[in-house]
Every structure is written in structure tokens, then in C-alpha cells.
Specification:
159 residues; mainly alpha
Length: 159
């Protein structure tokens, strides 16, 4: 019984820690800790919901994957949605700092992509947040649908 709650909680914490570490790690690598903390403070209204949303997706995915609360035959598209929204969230959070990576690692062609990502930083973060919400919605829908299948259906009587 404890396992049914501990596994999703662990997945939430690990997923959130992973995406937050990715964000802070890229920023720290590019410009240092002071810059990373100032960027996090500046963008916290976008970054924190993305981090929490990714953690919620990880928790829901483990519930689906390990069939913790409902015996589901298939997880549907939940895994691919989590991968897509995770990639979008990571791209959105890196968009704010990618132009600094070009200072450290001058790769041909990266500067154009960096300026594009920097220019559209906020929209990318909003898209990342939207992808998180869509991923959560898909997984909740799968759980709801499977829960409805378990309920006994009323028998209609004919006269």
C-alpha cells in the first residue's frame, strides 16, 4: 500500500529535480552561479510551474506505467506526451540562456538559433507550460477512462 504512494511521490521529486537541475546546470555552466540564480529569480513565474508540471507528469506516468491504482492494459500515448512536453519544457528553459553558450562554445550556425531562442524566450516558456498541461490532461484522461471501465454498468430493462 505504501508503495502505491511512494513510487509516484519519488517520481515527482526526481522529475522535478531533473528538469530544475538541467535548467540551473545550463545557466551555471554558461555564466556562473550568480547569473543562474538571478535568471531563476527573474523567470520564476514561468520556471517553477514548468518544474512542478514536469514532476506531476512523471508521477502520473509512473501511476500509469506501474498500474498502481487501476489495472490498465495500456498507457496509451502518455509516454510520448511526457517525452514531448519534457523536451519542450527543457528547450523553453534553455531558451533564456542559450545565447551565453555561444560565448563559451562557438559552433557555426548556433548563433542564429541562439538569437531566435532568446528573442522568443517567453513564448517558448508558455509553450512549455502548455505542453505540460496537455501532458497532464492526457494522462488524467487515460486514468479517468480506465476508471470508468471498472465501474459496473447498469443493466437496462426492456418492457
Amino acid at each position: 500500500m505504501v508503495k502505491r504512494f511512494l513510487i509516484p511521490l519519488s517520481a515527482f521529486l526526481l522529475g522535478s529535480a531533473f528538469i530544475a537541475s538541467f535548467y540551473i546546470g545550463i545557466l551555471t555552466w554558461a555564466q556562473g552561479w550568480n547569473y543562474a540564480s538571478s535568471q531563476f529569480t527573474r523567470d520564476r513565474w514561468y520556471v517553477i510551474p514548468i518544474i512542478v508540471g514536469f514532476g506531476v507528469q512523471a508521477a502520473l506516468y509512473t501511476i500509469l506505467r506501474f498500474r498502481l491504482f487501476i489495472p490498465i492494459p495500456s498507457t496509451g500515448h502518455a509516454g510520448s506526451m511526457m517525452g514531448a512536453s519534457g523536451g519542450t519544457s527543457a528547450t523553453a528553459m534553455v531558451a533564456c540562456c542559450i545565447h551565453h553558450v555561444t560565448d563559451v562554445l562557438p559552433i557555426l550556425g548556433l548563433s542564429a538559433a541562439a538569437s531566435f531562442l532568446t528573442r522568443y524566450q517567453r513564448p517558448f516558456m508558455l509553450v512549455g507550460l502548455a505542453m505540460n498541461l496537455i501532458g497532464i490532461g492526457v494522462m488524467l484522461f487515460v486514468l479517468y477512462r480506465e476508471r470508468q471501465k471498472l465501474k459496473p454498468q447498469p443493466v437496462l430493462e426492456t418492457i
